[in-house]
Amino acid sequence: MYGSEVAILRDGKKAKFQIVAHGDVDIDKNRISYESPLAKVILGLQEGFCYEGEINGNQTRIEILEVNLLEDRDLLEN
Length: 78
What we know:
It is built from 2 helices and 5 strands. The protein is of the alpha+beta class. A hairpin with a 2-residue loop joins strand 1 (4-10) and strand 2.
């Protein structure tokens, strides 16, 4: 999912973000590192999959709503 835009439902709240390389992280643009705890949990999951467990010491439930692969130009434009 590195280089992907992911929509999730986390503990009942929708969120959408891009999973990017460490040097491309921009929290204001919802770009998180593939090395972040959240990204590590969802890497390899597919749409419709759920994760229930712990992230950074907190219990959480995550459902993958949508995954879109981004091309390099998509990352540069946003």
